[in-house]
Structure formats: C-alpha cells, structure tokens
Design a protein that fits this description.
The chain is of the alpha/beta class. The protein has two domains: 144 residues, Rossmann fold (3-Layer(aba) Sandwich), CATH 3.40.50.720; 162 residues, 2-Layer Sandwich (Dihydrodipicolinate Reductase, domain 2), CATH 3.30.360. 37% of the residues lie in helices and 23% in strands. The strands form three sheets. A seven-stranded mixed β-sheet has the order 12-11-7-10-9-8-15, covered by helices on one side. Helix 7 packs across helix 9. The chain starts with a strand and ends in a 7-residue tail after the last strand. The chain binds (2R,3S,4s,5R,6S)-2,3,4,5,6-pentahydroxycyclohexanone.
Length: 332
Amino acid sequence: MTELRIAVLGVGMMGAFHAAALSSRIRGARVTVVNDFFPEKAAEVAASVGARAVADPFEAIRAEDVDAVLIATPGRAHDEQVNACLDRGIPVLCEKPLTTDIASSYAIVQKEARLGRPLIQVGFMRRFDAEYVALKKLITDGALGNPLVVHCTHRNPTVPDFFNSEFMIRDSVVHEVDVARFLLDEEITSVQVLKGVATKAAPAGTSDPMIVVFETESGRIVTDEIYVRTGVAYEVRTEVVGESGSATIGLDQNLVVKTTDGRWGGSLTPGFVQRFGAAYDVELQRWVDAARRGTVDGPGAWDGYAAVAVCEAGVEAVRTGQKVRVAMEARP
Ligand code: ISE
C-alpha cells in the first residue's frame, strides 16, 4: 500500500488535531474523508486538509477511497462505528472509550478475535509518551526491582460543569487505568474511591478531588489523585515505587532556576495537547505504519475493554462508597 487513506470521524478538538497531524507531520498517510455531526465543522476541517466532507459516518467508513478510520466522535457513537469498520475489515484507531458499556466492548473483542487479525487500536496515547516509555523500560529492565506501588496524580486546570465524579472516572481516570495495566502488565481487580473535601469550584454533588485506589491481580496497589479544577495547569505525574528504587515522571522538564530572586520555578503545560502532543504524533505514526503492514502496534480492543470494565467498577465505587470488584470475561 502506498499511502494510507484515512477517514476522520468527529472533528472536535481531538479529531481536528489528529486530522491536522495526519496531513502534515505524519508520514505515509492522507486524510481523504472528514465527517462530523456538524456539517460546517466537517467542511471547514476537510477544506483545511484537502479532503471531502461526508454527512453520514457509515458512508465515510465504506468509502472506496478510505483504507482506515480514525474515530474521535463522542463515546456513545463508537460501538456502531467500530463495528462498521470490523464489518469492512479495515483498521481503526478509536479514541477512548472503546464503547460506553462492558457488554458491547466485549462483543467487539470477540468479533475482532473471530476475524483472526487485529484491526483495532484504542487511543491511549500515554503509552507513546517518551517518559512513560522510559518508566516502563526501567521496570522491565529490573532497575527498580519488583514494582510494589504506583502513585498517580492527574490534575486539569479546569473542566466544564458536566464533569461530575462519574465522568471524572470515565474520562480522566481511564488514563491511569491504562497506565497501570501498561506499566505492571497485569489486570486491575478492584476499585475503591475516597471522596474528601471538594474544591469550591466543583458543582454541588461533585467530589473533586478524589483518591482512587486500585488493586491488581498480584495484589499491588495503585493510587490516583484525580483533581480536575485546580485552576493552575495540566499536571500528570506517575511514581513507581519498587523494591530497590523508585522513579517519577511528569515533573515538567522545563524547570528553570531563577537566580535573580533566589527562587526556583518554571512553567507547567496548560493542557493535555501540549503535554502529550509528541505522544499523539508517535501514536498516529505507529498506527499508520502498522496499518500499512496490516497489523496493530499499540493498545488494542482488549485494552479498551479492560479500561471500560475497570471504569464501570470505578463508577459503582463512586456511587456506593464500597470497594468494587472488576468483572471481566476471559480473553478470547
Ligand atoms: C481528557 O478527555 C483526556 O483524555 C485527557 O488526556 C485527560 O487528561 C483529561 O482529564 C480528560 O478530560
């Protein structure tokens, strides 16, 4: 295959960002079709990347000049759209969540397994971030000894009011779910959520921040502080504590020492596009290269399903205040 011809479905912030990357920074790919719920938006992005706009997402998936699909539509649209890609047998990069419920995610895992070749990649971009890759290597090289505890911090400067406690689990904590599985190479078996004093910036009924505690198959503990209305900046940190050492990433490498007033400081990234911009591009390049070889080189349908299953348990933990066991089917 010469160039991978891609349909981008959904051109809100992430879809538009990916479409621009695919038509400028990513090699071996071209956006040929753009679709969005809002036709003007689709037309605008299509014009900016030299593609055509199509009103029906399924027409886009089935178009003759489309070899692969990037899905960045709202989560509720993913199930049908990913299934349509599997029906056509073409590669798909789907932003999280894979789908919005456990049963439909597992059905997709099974359907892809029946097809006998991997077609689905899920957009967990942190796996492509240089710092996470380095941290994973430290673990697999044994530099930290047996990893015992993982501490995560996930802070956003601001979010819209619809970001309630459950949404914080599904939309934000889902990244730490994938990070924990990626770093530790095992499944998460239970979730507990501790709610403390909420910031006055949070709407009534929303617990922000929260501390989420995961347990893994082997009994390791992963903690995650999720705080999405800090009013400060975008801060994503991860510390792995092992038997013979610990390592922390996300400390912002652009720290500078100010000698004039004797204080030190630096700048933090304002949002996830700035913090993970390079990782998104690596993610896309690896997806394009793998799709052209007829395979997938990143988190797949199983990872998407596992994340949905853990988040479902997390949401129940928010509602009940209990430690909730993760219900997962067997891997086909
Ligand atoms: C957002 O949807 C993302 O995926 C970002 O990576 C995450 O940091 C943020 O909290 C989410 O809302």
